[in-house]
Amino acid sequence: MEPRIQYAKTADGVSIAFWTLGEGMPVMYMTHPPFSHIQLQWQNPDQRRWWERLAEKRKLVCYDGRGTGLSNREVIDFSLDAQMLDLEALVDRLGLERFALFAPTNSGPAAIAYAAHHPERVSHLVLWCSWVCASDWSHSPQLRALGGLLNRDWETYTETYAHIGVGWSAGAEAQEAAVLMRESVTQRAGQAWAEAVRRFDVTDLLPQVRSPTLVLHRRQFPLLHVEVARRLASEIPDARLALLEGASTAPWVGDMDAAASAMDEFLSEGEEMKAAAQLPGGMAVILFTDIADSTSLTERLGDSAFRARAGELDTSLRSVIRGSGGTPVEGKVLGDGVMAVFTSARQAIECALRCNAATEGTGLQLHLGIHAGDVIREGNNVYGGAVNIAARIAGVSAPGEILASDIVRGLARTSAGVSFADRGEHELKGVGEAQRLFAVKEGA
Fold first, then answer.
1. What is the mean pLDDT of the chain?
2. Of 210, 201, 148, 177, which Cα lies nearest the Cα of 31?
3. Coil, helix or strand for 201?
4. C-alpha neighbours within 13 Å on the C-beta side of residue 98
5. What does the alpha-carbon distance between residue 250 and residue 253 come to, in Å, rounded to a whole number?
6. Which fold has domain 277-442?
């Protein structure tokens, strides 16, 4: 059954058409601007199967941006700020606190800008054949030729664009795409979009993206070189790159299963982490890190050199923590490390592994301890017995070793994808009962 078309109103008064499909984790699907018509696209059997596949385990939200499809067609402001207003209207209309964001091709810059400005809302960012700035397209002779057609012959422009983007071998699929393009936007709006694109550049925002990010790209896509995808993945902190075979910008053309499976695997990590360790209110999973042998390192390197290295590592660790879904504690903690709190044992364990990896090449090593329990939150700090135990666990770990308490092992043993080596019971300073500790090992 066709999803029901609904509307949201932007802060500047524009009506945005959308539909939802499925239940569960929200996934905001930004369609390909300016060629979007969510009702007509649903009538394409292949595209419908793609959307239905994504909505099998999740709540898919799909919409027409301003000036396109069933949304307000008189508005042709396609600036990044305007595109973010469209997205914000849907988020407010649906009352979404956190959601995954899927951005195909031309919607990539707006998605990157939104994720950089709203890290607390974007749980995952998926960029499909996306780009950063207008110059990313400059290598393409096809696009340069298309630019002339846009102003002279709208039908030839859409036919050519559709065949290049979907694939010359797609045949009927490409012809249907050309019809959709003409139905979804006027020639005047298409010209306005082309003019707006020339000003897009989100290069400076890439390092500010803190959401876990997956960059998907088809190797043979003719309009956008694979190096653009590599650049995206390298400049967004901890982003992953998945290169897929195929030449079509439409994920439902060619190997749809490869694209869907890559997304499923990436998005399910957040869902599994949430399900693996739902803690009662007032509880948290605490990761405590401390630089190993800091006193001897200070004597050997000198205080200034050691502090410089430690400061750089501190910055890296806090970035890793945020990228893993945790919150680095900003208040004062003991030692030369960082403390963080998580809502999931799996998050904390994966973060600890990534923290260890962040020390490579620095000449520094970490003690790492993980515990879960009640915490008292006060401003930007947390207190309580659980915090003390996490710090003591870190203190008895070997350099580079991750030690976890038995409660953390119990919360994560079926979901974290790691193994646990029993290190026996330990008497910890200031802790009344002996704690049974386990070393975390990569690989189940």
1. 85
2. 177
3. strand
4. 14
5. 5
6. Alpha-Beta Plaits (3.30.70)
